[in-house]
Amino acid sequence: MSSFGKNIRVNIFGESHGPAIGVVIEGLKPGHRVDLDSIYGMMDRRRPGTGRDVTARKEKDRPEIISGVFNGVTTGMPLCAIIKNSDRRSGDYDEMRNIPRPGHSDYTAYVKYGGFNDVRGGGAFSGRLTAPLVFAGAMACDILRKSGIEIASHLLAVGDIEDTGLNNIEYDINQRKSILENPLPMIDRDAAKKAGLLVAKVRSDGDSIGSLIETSVYNIPAGTGGVGFDSFESNLAKVCFGVPGLKGIEFGKGFELHKMRGSEANDPFRLENGAVKTSSNNAGGLLGGISDGMPLVFNGVMKPTASIALEQDSVDLKNNVETRLAIRGRHDPCIGIRAVPVLEACAALVTLDYMMEA
Length: 358
Ligand SMILES: Cc1cc2nc3c(=O)[nH]c(=O)nc-3n(C[C@H](O)[C@H](O)[C@H](O)COP(=O)(O)O)c2cc1C
What we know:
There is one protein chain. This protein is α+β, with helices and mostly antiparallel strands. Helix content is 26%, strand content 23%. β2 (9-14) and β3 (20-26) form a beta hairpin. The radius of gyration is 21 Å and the shape is globular.
């Protein structure tokens, strides 16, 4: 299923090189004015061919809203938006029909769908399907902003180049400005420049590189979330793992917790103007699957792009012989760069879903 959500339902559809991709969002309240500038701004950060990114595919990525909005305002009916695929070059993928790319979904999709799946550009497994997800997420960000909730995401690391972490105690608008202005979505300008050089080098080597994306959701009211299998972590992880190329997620100190003692890991409670806060935020703002009112912080690791120009071993499935494969066509050497607004969108949609419970 390509849908998620309880109070709002998000359904993504389409294939990378089909006529269009899109999203249906059900459950949005009526009366929300759709801010296209803000939506385009977030979608442009994910879009290929913007100069800041590193893929050669050129797409305008302007959504066409075909239902659920009247006179620029949501009606409360299912909102459907489509994005036409203008840059369709199916020829690049002919070889992949029979020779699966190592590290991509070609082989598993071939087995599961009996070879009937659309292989062009990865079909429904393509990163392109994250464009409608970002459209939905941008709408969610705008709705959340009205309740004072802000979200920031950035590349915390590209290879071994590390960025400064997001403020995990309170929202820092200057950090967000830097992320938007720097040559790569990072807080520290020097780190962004170094990471840019690394990505360029990796590309010229015909290779690709992994990355780590940190996201913080600020000002979620304490008590927002769910218990057990409906915990904030469960739902957020489920949606994030729908993003192709994401291979791991951790909340707060996450996988570092195994090295810590309780006395170090626990976030002591304190009072600030009568409100309960914690003085550290190792829990990433979540206790028992429910927000404690501190920023919700999580990291998602994006694997190195599977499609690389360097020759690799594969198997010719038609003739059942081993072979070699070098990927032609257009591919990001670091998918994490464009995945930053995608994880922001996931965080926004899951947070909005919980907020609508109140
Ligand atoms: C924004 C974005 C762009 C992507 N671009 C590419 C790409 O150009 N080439 C590629 O091989 N994979 C790309 N991917 C990742 C693949 O879609 C993904 O690795 C593949 O579907 C296999 O799924 P898995 O890695 O989650 O197992 C991209 C992912 C995202 C989020």
